[in-house]
Amino acid sequence: xxxxxxxxRRRLLIPAVLGAVLAVTATTAALTxxxxxxxxxxxxxxxxxxxxxxxxxxxxxxxxxxxxxxxxVAAAALNAADGDALSLRRFGGACGTPGNTARVxxxxxxxxxxIADAASDLRPTGQATLHSGILAAIDDLSGSDATHNRIIVxxxxxxxxxxxxxxxxxxxxxxxxxxxxxxxxxxxVGYRLAGEDRDALALxxxxxxxxxxxxxxxxxDLAITLKEFTVPSSYEAVPAEVPxxxxxxxxxxTGENHMGxxxxxxxxxxxxxxxxxxxxxxxxYGYGDGGFLVGPSxxxxxxxxxxxxxxxxxxxxxxxxxxxxxxxxxxxxxxxTAACNDFGGIAxxxxxxxxxxxxxxxxxxxxxxxxxxxxPGLYVGVSQWAPERRDFETPLPRGSLSFxxxxxxxxxxxxxxxxxxxxxxxxxxxxxxAFTYHFMQLAEERGTSAEDIDRVSGKIASIISGAA
Length: 468
What we know:
The protein is α/β, with parallel strands linked by helices.
């Protein structure tokens, strides 16, 4: 089954937190599932599913305290209404053993104090058995007669240590829902997750037909969010979110003259940013450390790190050998020449940083069309030129062009890089997708507003399509 099927919709009711709650939870990661029932039991029923697995160093030593999680759960349980039914389940242990998830406090009303006390007694152990915990939590609610049922999963991993088979996990979830006649809505929340863990949690969310995971990095945000998830108003329904596309990822290989670091772990699939869909004939390539490149499908992707240990440059290219290629050149060094050529006289931050230097007063060469990003210090532009035919194994057809997305980050120093694309005019959509994805990655890191992302993405597409 293709990974795109992970986004198959089966939502009947879409409950979620209110807008004020969403503002708080935009920095958190936990999973909530809502079910509908019609019996005479409590109106609200909630299961706290806690990641009680061991977190490895250096995370455990530097940024993670398990007490943040247990304190947050305790505060949320004590804050819940006495008439709401609560239970506590943990996950973490050895893969494939029944004890890798267990119910700690059985479901009952007035359970705030028992859950608070039991949470404080939890101790991290074993591996992160996330999927086992979720499946068991669904089963916990199979006989619920509450009007609203919710599972809140708090995880400091995002990954399942035992499996990365999200398709099998989706089938198991569907089986439980179908056998119990349940309608569920999932919400994921993780605590202090690294980039790769966030990607893995997004795949689990897609497999359970859930909205994007939300992320939190402080104990205060986590505690506030968990409290909000237990108040009755958070069960109010909101419109369904547009599903995000999940793309398979092909790992790049090192080039013949490769120097520097090796390619790190690359996930088999990645959930793309909201609003981005890869057009037919394109694919996603990964070169480790959270680096991804959109290029033509069935291409060869190679990485060349020239003196990367000294921070000189990293080059990644994906080419089909015929007429389409995308190319990324990144550098850890200041590129004053590139910044001046692209944004000299446009970026006041550049003028200020170059004051007193021979470069002060430099002007852009006019080849780059500047696109205001709405993010202070972030400058983006698009340029185009006639491609060098010798760069391809076969002659380029008439109508081919090269484009470059030129970026300068002037917040602290002067750092510039570019992403280039060469294609025939009937494949300019590859270039648009490659540049849009690259900008969305930059925008996500800087908290750029959705309106600015849409505006910049639209301008990139307009420039490239207009060249045809």
